[in-house]
Amino acid sequence: MRKILFSLVWLMFVFLLLQGAGFAFYTLKVSQPISDYGYPVGLTVAHPRMGYAYQPNFSGYFKGSAYQDIPIEINAQGFRDRDFAARPGDAWRLAVLGDSVVFGAGVRQEDRFTECLGAPDQTGRADRRVLNLGVNSYSFGHYLTLAQLGFSGADPDAVLVGITLNDFAPMENNGPARRVQRYAGEWHKLDWVARVQERIGRTYAVRFLREIRTRVSYALLNTDELEEYHTKWMRSVVTGWRLEENRQRFETQLDDFASLLKGADIPFGFILFPELNELRNPSEFGEARLLVRDLFDRRGLQYCDPYDDFARQGDLDSLFLAREDIHYSPKGHQVLCEAVDRCLDDQRFRSR
User: Of 112, 238, 282, 312, which residue has the fewest beta carbons closer than 10 angstroms?
Assistant: First the structure.
């Protein structure tokens, strides 16, 4: 009995030691975490048309050890935003469609560019209500389907579509959709067990251990593997745009989307999201963005390209999450907000 008690006391001592080290690491910012943000179990559910969507009224936190203090709250319509229902005296309603960039991967809801776009002015009055319809890994086929479904109750006066440069990807090849279908057919742990594990996983001690494991795995990578994952991703994007099949799919869906919104008399436009590799090396990675711009120009479609706004910033890395090339930090979302705000004023998307 004494040995058991001693072992329990020792384990508690080790746990408290790790808890204190993790607290210093994450709270006092003595070092920059390198782990990914990660999505919590239960966030996504199967959808008959989209393949997958967010669980309405879901509440949880990002899964990655460096981001577990950032909550994810999903509204009744299945998006990371407040309820879309109209309010008395509601302002002009702008729906923003997109993937994880619009969703706000790795940042708090209030730090996203969509929140900034809908912020009140100095008089306390907001002249637009911005509705965030971002879902991680969605591509242009999903945006077209959302439009066909009436924007899931958002009832917008105008629409902006955020374009990440891999949006030519087909809906049926989507990883989250395949995982949701596989999960539905497999045995999985009871909900209360999953909740307890998630709670334990959010302690500083467990997060710190995961961070150590991540750093060790990075240290063991060979030279080829050390190239950032997102740099490899961007190389595949450039290659993907050179395939006629991908370009044709994107153009067909783009034309269908434009025809649908014009028929519904809903003004719309697009945002081209800058990517860190292209900002650093436009000669190698700039082909995809220029191709998309050309597609918009030939059709006379309105779009906002904040590339120059990002390129002018002194510290490009500070605009993105740690060890990231795609998803923006709060500072990056602020730069994006200011650029899109000017585009909305200049191009007057409100005109019907």
Answer: 312
Q: State how far Cα 64 lies from the chain centre.
A: 14
Dist. CA 141–CA 132, nearest whole Å:
18
Mean pLDDT of 99-114: 97
Beta-strand relationship, 59-61 and 71-73: antiparallel
Please tell me the total number of residues recorded for the chain in this structure: 352
The neighbour count for residue 247, using CB atoms within 10 Å, is 16
Amino acid type, 335: V
Token pair belonging to 35: 């782990």
User: How confident is the model over 13-27, as pLDDT tens digits?
Assistant: 777 777 787 777 777
State yes or no: pLDDT of 218 exceeds 70: no
C-alpha span between 90 and 92 (Å, rounded):
7
Q: Locate all alpha helices (DSSP H) within the chain, ordered by sequence.
A: 2-27, 100-103, 113-117, 140-148, 175-184, 191-201, 204-219, 229-241, 244-263, 276-280, 282-285, 287-299, 307-311, 330-347
Alpha helices in 28-80 (DSSP H): none
